[in-house]
Structure formats: structure tokens, C-alpha cells
Design goal:
The structure is a homodimer. By secondary structure, the first copy, chain A, is of the alpha/beta class. Chain A has a single domain, classed as Dihydrofolate Reductase, subunit A (3-Layer(aba) Sandwich). Chain A is 22% helix and 28% strand. Chain A contains 7 helices and 11 strands. In chain A, strands 5-6-4-3-7-1-8-11-10 form a 9-stranded mixed β-sheet, sandwiched between helices. Chain A has a two-stranded antiparallel sheet with strand order 2-9. In chain A, a hairpin with a 4-residue loop joins strand 10 and strand 11. At the A-B interface, helix 7, strand 10 and strand 11 of A face helix 7, strand 10 and strand 11 of B. Chains A, B: It holds the Pfam family RibD_C.
């Protein structure tokens, strides 16, 4: 079985993984897109989205490529799939990513509201799971086989898996800005303190990458 | 007039500047001393305290020396001066640092309880100021002359000055550990978001140093 990991997860220097006032127009919250500029600038980020340009090679591009590689299934929270709250009704929302999302594998959406799977172009199928983090992780691991399961976000979803001790590796990209408000990745969680050790910090021109592994 | 600055201020990767449960025996909170190991290991930290050893030169030692240099007055919070709460009574507490504190200049202690100044060995005089941050800053700037005023800590004191927009430069040392709980430097403060820009990030073997300046 592969690892369970968080990769290329951007936080501000003051600890926010999204800006305040997330909405349809500002899915990353106000100012939140600044957190990801380092990744937007890489070829490995842009290529799967069909976008031109981007820097090939270097610390940032290498880590984006490494983060995307070897992943057999992704778990995301409801908010990362879309802005809709409450029951799905007859919504035809199919995610933020258009007809061919960049996952290319099964993406499991944690939600309180059941919905049939949606098969997208390019190999992505969205599955909607209402039974909580242990069940969604089991289903993702079954789908991934020997490959890794990636916890894609948002912050609340990553935090749930961290608090439950279910994550093997965490790679954070600290963007040197102060957002001042928004959604934190880390809230008080004393069980984390002894659970993870930092095994590397890698600066790029834009950010500093921190690599954490679960102890023991 | 010099700058108002915060230098060599250590925070954990999850944003804590002190561990939980601060006490007489654990003035930095549980686990809090780990935040400062990078500084303890430098010659420039140890020399003013009369301690042997420490690495001379390199990123960390250079920044400790730079942080201590050119400071004409320091402002600290009550908790950084000592563990006593409430009125001073007939306490003979003279700070955490022994007979000759490392400041070597006037150190202004923010407190709600008046007390006569205490002249220490080595040039440090503790002044106790009850009139709030604007007044203490004025007094510190008068004492410093052309030199800088340093906001020494703890986290609550630094935050007060940051929130009021009174700090010109902030140098943070992010120590790659997760404390899980404790006292944060940054709490929600939307006025900070546009107030500071990061002008440099410098990795050492132990930490990453971030340099922030007040915009415009």
C-alpha cells in the first residue's frame, strides 16, 4: 500500500491556507491566490490544466511534479469540489476544473450529502462519500492500489486527517506573505506536537518547502 | 530617529512563539525552548550571557549579532520580565537574566503596575511603564536617540505593536517544528495583510529567516 500524503500545500507565513470570505468569485478567499503563485508559475502545474508556459525544472517545478506523481487517488473536501452548500438537488456542478479535471484518477469528495459518481474526461471520476474520513480513506486506498493517496484539501479536510493521525507525509510550501485572516491549516491540536518531525526545508526563490513525516 | 524593529523572533512552523502552560519552571512554555535552539547554538547569543562556546559566523550567528547591534532601547512585556502577576508588592524579582542582563541599555517593561526603575549591572536599567504602547515607545525612542528600538517580546507585546502599525521591520526565524499549542504570534488581524511585505527569506541549516518591512 502507498503512503497517505499532503503535497504542495501552500500556507502563508501567518498560517493561512486560504484567504477570508471564500465565495464563488473568490474560491481561495480574498488574496488567497497569492499563496499559489509559486505553483502557477511552474510548467508541471500548468501542463495538466492545458495551460501554456511555466518554468520547467528548479525546486518549485520539481516539487509540483513530484507531488502529482505516483498518486492513485485523491481525497478532497466538499468546498474544494465546489461552492454549493447543503443537498445537491439537481445541481449540474461538476467541479472547478472543467470537463477534464487534472486528477486523472478517482477523486473522493467528502460530503454530508450523497450523490452518484460523475465520470469526467481524462480519467477522473468523482465519488461522493458520506461516511467520514476512515471510510473515504479505505475507499481511496482500494482505488489507489500500490500508489499513494493524496489529501488534496482544503485546509479543514487536511486538518481532519492530520488530527486523526492518518497522514504519513506532509509537504508545505510557506509563501512569505501575511494574509492577516482566512482559514488556518493548523489550529490548536496538541496531539500533533509529537506526531510529526520536519525532515527537510528547501528554499526556492518564491517559497520555502517544508517536509514533515510522521514519527516512528 | 532609528527604526522600531523585532529581531530574531522565533516561531514554530505552526505559528507558536511560546509553548503551552508557561510557568516559573517553563518560562517559554512546554517545548518552547526548542524554538530558540538555533540561537542558543550561536556565539553571538552566548557571549553577552557569559556562556562558553557557540558557533561563530554563518547565517544564524550573523543574524543574532545584527539583531543585537544598533539597539538603543528594548521594550518587553511584563511576562518576559518575570512570572509575577498582579501588583509588585515587595517583590525583589529583577528579571530572568541575573545581575547583569544582556541588554546593556534601557529596557522598558510594559505593565499595569507602577514600580521604580531598577538599575542593573552592565548598563541595563529596567523602567516600568503603565501608560500603554504609544507612551512606552516614545520613552524608548527618547532613550535610544539615533539607535533602533527593539520590541523584545513576548508574543502578545509584539502583536500589540504590530496591530498598531508601529513596527518598521520584523525578522522572524521559523523553526521547523510543530508545537501543536501555545501562544501564537499572529492571530486574525486583517489590518496586517497589506501592511507588511516580505523582502527576504534566508535559510540556515536550522531555521528559515524571514524579513518583513512595513510597506510604503
Amino acid at each position: 500500500m502507498g503512503n497517505v500524503r499532503v503535497s504542495n500545500f501552500s500556507v502563508s507565513l501567518d498560517g493561512y491556507a486560504a484567504g477570508p470570505d471564500q465565495s464563488m468569485d473568490a474560491p481561495l478567499g480574498i488574496g488567497g491566490e497569492q499563496l499559489h503563485e509559486w505553483a502557477f508559475a511552474t510548467r508541471s502545474f500548468r501542463e495538466p490544466l492545458g495551460m501554456e508556459g511555466g518554468v520547467r525544472g528548479g525546486v518549485d517545478d520539481d516539487l509540483v511534479a513530484k507531488g502529482n506523481g505516483g498518486v492513485g487517488a485523491t481525497i478532497i473536501g466538499r468546498n474544494m469540489f465546489g461552492p454549493i452548500r447543503g443537498p445537491w438537488g439537481d445541481s449540474d456542478w461538476r467541479g472547478w476544473w472543467g470537463a477534464a479535471p487534472p486528477f486523472g484518477h478517482s477523486a473522493f469528495v467528502l460530503t454530508h450529502h450523497p450523490r452518484d459518481p460523475i465520470e469526467m474526461e481524462g480519467g477522473t471520476t468523482f465519488h461522493f462519500v458520506t461516511e467520514g474520513i476512515e471510510v473515504v480513506l479505505k475507499r481511496a486506498q482500494d482505488a489507489a492500489g500500490d500508489a499513494d493517496v493524496r489529501i488534496g484539501g482544503g485546509p479543514a479536510t487536511v486538518r481532519q486527517f492530520l488530527d486523526a493521525g492518518l497522514v504519513d507525509e506532509v509537504h508545505l510550501a510557506v509563501t512569505p506573505i501575511l494574509l492577516g485572516a482566512g482559514e488556518r491549516l493548523f489550529t490548536d491540536a496538541e496531539n500533533l506536537a509529537s506526531g510529526y518531525t520536519c525532515t527537510g526545508q528547501t528554499p526556492s526563490d518564491a517559497v520555502t518547502h517544508y517536509h514533515l513525516h510522521r514519527a516512528g
